[in-house]
Design brief:
Blueprint (H helix, E strand, L loop, with lengths): L1 H13 L1 H22 L8
Length: about 45
């Protein structure tokens, strides 16, 4: 049981894809908050 948990945690820590998606998710959340705070109808590219 403990071995499975540590293995899973190591997998989560070592997996760059999961880190990448976490980073994208946070970036999108921040962008939505910023865009919403500035009257988000205007598209800034």
């Amino acid at each position: 049981m403990t071995q499975r948990i540590s293995k899973y945690q190591r997998f989560k820590m070592m997996n760059p894809i999961i880190q990448f998606f976490k980073y994208i998710y946070l970036s999108i959340k921040i962008m939505l908050i910023v865009a919403g705070g500035h009257g988000g109808t205007r598209k800034v590219n």
